[in-house]
Amino acid sequence: MNLDNINKWLSFAANIGVIIGIFFLALELNQNTVISEVDSILSIRQSQQNIQLISLENPEFAAFNVKLLNNDELNPVEARQAIDFALYLRNQSQMAYIQYENGLISEADLLELLAPFRFWITRNEQIASIWEGINSNSGNTEFIKYFNEYLLVND
After folding, report:
1. Chain centroid to CA 85: how far?
2. pLDDT per residue over 36-54, tens digit each?
3. For 71, which DSSP code?
4. How many CA atoms lie within 13 A of 6 on its CB side?
5. Alpha helices in the chain (DSSP H)
6. pLDDT one-digit tens code per residue, 64-121
């Protein structure tokens, strides 16, 4: 074999090595994307589960939830809690929407993560009123538009 043939075989082997390296890089990127998607969903679900746990462990919070479900009159402290609860739900939903926008979660996962906020908006006048205030004052307008369309489509 002459030197030219050796160089061709070495070049060929190096090109094969590059192709194999690109394949493994793509495989790792895909795994990282899947891990990011799972982490995104799990973090929001964990937060939602924490609210359920608080309700289980704290009878006062459970009673507050019942008042919200029944649209009962709230005292000033409960009214403030309703605002904070609505903002919490909005923030969770907006984080899910941002993750959806960035390709970290699917639309099916997004709709599932928006369900608690939708539930409370459609069942409680105070939280619906807070949502209307959020719409008129500030926020991610794309999220607000998407969420309002989601509400209208599914009512």
Report:
1. 17
2. 666 766 777 777 777 777 8
3. T
4. 3
5. 3-57, 59-69, 76-101, 107-123, 125-137, 141-154
6. 989 998 999 999 999 999 998 888 888 888 888 988 988 888 899 888 888 888 888 8
